[in-house]
Known about the structure:
Shape: globular
Order of helices and strands: EEHHEEEHEHEEH
Number of domains: 1
Strand content: 25-35%
CATH topology: Aminopeptidase
Strand order of the largest sheet: 1-2-3-4-5-6-8-7
Structural class: alpha+beta
Oligomer: single chain
Number of helices: 5
CATH class: Alpha Beta
Distance between the termini: 34 Å
Largest sheet: 8 strands, mixed
Number of strands: 8
Amino acid sequence: MTERVRVAETERLTLTRPHADDGPAVFAVHGDPATNLHNPDGPHRSLDESEACLEGWLDDWVRDGVGYCAVALRGQPEAVIGFAGVRVSRLEGEDVLNLYYRFVPSAWGRGFAGEAARAALDFACPLFPDTAVVALIREDNTSSGRLAERLGLQAGGDRDAAGRLIYRLPATARLTRL
């Protein structure tokens, strides 16, 4: 297995750049119906689909120097429990940092998503100081919405093309949050 490139570390977690060997971990998280209850695209149906998704994430890192991270418990870097981070995206004609977090069900309710998301924001935001952070969240996904709000994002009532609420943290608001 390829050595992992550490992006951030918290008291309990290590965030690393994903690599080509992470296809099975992506499928373990993204192929599970429980982790996709609020995903308009539903779970991945095959390892090939997860590997294609992973390839896009790897491209993000090469192109932008940021992207979604593999998240593992500190000291267990090969045991990926989820993915979190930001990627550069276009939303309504604007470049934004799209905040993302998804974890295996056994990791839910332990604060890992918030811890990983905050670490990812702390890494990425200084690299893109004039770029807003957004999270696209279905209205019925109240847990994810609450997490976005704890991270400082606010829903303004706008929705994306898939009908998800757009939670936003303007670049100017980050000065007081980070």
